[in-house]
Design goal:
The chain is of the alpha/beta class. It has 2 domains: 148 residues, Ribosomal Protein L4, Chain: A (3-Layer(aba) Sandwich); 50 residues, no CATH class.
Length: 206
């Protein structure tokens, strides 16, 4: 099992924590990680784009001029794609972009990125993260003490003071243990996790 240092809010090492290999020591499956990212981005798409084809545009019921003898090219409708106000060729229609992964694939993908964070020393554990008021300056001081600039901060419980203190800091995002996902972990350089959150993650995913 991997041992990781535990820091306090001043950035000083106050101990170590042993991580469960069932979550933080698995074999990294890059293919599943890629599938999880593609699925998450695809599932965000609304798929509500729509344009009208020539059969859906109003008007253009009759032939604009006779077939021969006008000097013009033959035309069948003023709503053909080459006309202004005509329909769109191969127009987009509403569709479902959803990609589904089964539960085991999702879990293994998440465990793979968590393992990768630990292996690359991008996983920082805090003994606690609590503020008595909403103060962006205090949150920034904690991040500076940890030498962190772009991070995902994972909390065990929804602490309003911490969440709102971090909300105005660029490149910092807070998440709960039940909302962490592969894309967000890969998006940030560092994952900062409270000690309680580590235990919860191990209980859920081990």
């Amino acid at each position: 099992m991997a041992n990781v240092s535990v820091y306090n809010m001043e950035g000083k090492e106050v101990g170590t924590i042993e991580l469960n290999d069932a979550v933080f020591g698995v074999e990294v499956n890059e293919h599943l990680v890629h599938m999880a990212v593609v699925a998450q981005l695809a599932n965000k798409r609304q798929g509500t784009q729509k344009a009208k084809t020539r059969s859906e545009v109003s008007g253009g019921g009759r032939k604009p001029w006779r077939q021969k003898g006008t000097g013009h090219a033959r035309q069948g409708s003023t709503r053909a794609p080459q006309w202004t106000g005509g329909g769109v060729v191969f127009a987009p229609t509403p569709r479902d972009y959803t990609i589904r992964l089964n539960k085991k694939e999702k879990r293994l993908a998440l465990k793979s990125v968590l393992t990768n964070c630990v292996n690359e020393n991008k996983f920082i554990v805090l003994d606690e993260l609590k503020f008595d008021e909403i103060k962006t300056k205090k949150m920034q001081a904690v991040l500076d003490a940890l030498n962190v600039s772009k991070a995902l901060v994972v909390l065990n419980e929804n602490d309003t003071n911490v969440v709102k203190s971090a909300s105005n800091i660029a490149n910092i995002q807070t998440a709960l243990t039940n909302t962490i996902n592969v894309y967000d972990i890969l998006k940030y350089n560092t994952v900062v996790v409270t000690k309680d959150a580590v235990k919860t993650i191990e209980e859920v995913y081990a």
